[in-house]
Amino acid sequence: MSSAAAYISSVSRLFKAKTLSRGLVNELLSSKDWKEFMSVLKERGFVSEVPDSITVAELMLKKRALSLLEQLRDLSVSVKLAKDIVSAYVYRVTLDELTYLTSIVWNKLQGDVNLLTTLRSHIDQMPASMEELQSMLKGTIYGDALSFASSKSPKDLSQLNSLLEYYYIHFLSNIVEGLKGDWKAAANNILCGYKDYYSLSLAARQKISMDVRCNVSEDDIRDMANSRSQEDVINVLRRTVYSKSIDFTNMYTALTSLYRLAINRARTGAVSIFMGSPFNPVVAMGAAELIKLDTEDVIRMINGLKLRVPLDRLKQSLSFELL
């Protein structure tokens, strides 16, 4: 295992080298507009060309993230733990394809399989029912996610798709619970904030109580699921360990604050994981998390520049801690 783990560590470090630095982020934020921003990314080798629209830019960035994650996953086949971890990240960045399919099937609409990329190999024609979709995806992480979500008896499409998003953290949490010692601690340094955010957010928005958590209690999640007003939601968040860092203007700003804490801590944890033992296969999670966070941050930045969001406010939305 040690030689395989060392190999995964080495491969993961190569992918970390392809991620954003604080210096590059500050340079990007100094761009006068989103096209200059994309020109900087092109110069740094993040994209091959400067697109004509932000829509195309977002698509390019998401494809880049997916390509990197798929390469990392394929290079991790010798260590099942690392491969499963990276597979969860591939699932997360391609979740929009699965929710597109569930939305089409749930609403009995006419869909187009040509809009699919990753799931195109499993879907040769648009399914007519959720059962048919489940059958097509059997044996994949997407099929497992759909089974998980369906088992919770969602009452509407919003609940179903929220559960599909939740499956990402549910899947990773199950993997981490099976780890021990430094490996488990390193993984939880990345996932801890996500566990609390996803469970509290699902409870607040969909009134569904789940058991994945880190620094919040079962009572917090249960009370959140039973909340009947924005004030109830805010009161639950006020009693958590995160309260000093949350903006309580309203429920939505509070949950957004909680998410920002989660991504800040995830980035710190992902970077820190590379400073530990070189024989830790969980470094694959660090590389995958940085790829995901980079993509989300870059998309926030280009949209922020287009909308002329004040620089201080834009910085506060990122996973980087910037002065």
UniProtKB/TrEMBL annotation:
Matches recorded under SUPFAM superfamilies: V-type ATP synthase subunit C
Molecular function GO labels: proton-transporting ATPase activity, rotational mechanism
Taxonomic superkingdom: Archaea
Pfam families attached to this UniProt entry: vATP-synt_AC39
Name this protein carries in UniProt: Archaeal/vacuolar-type H+-ATPase subunit C
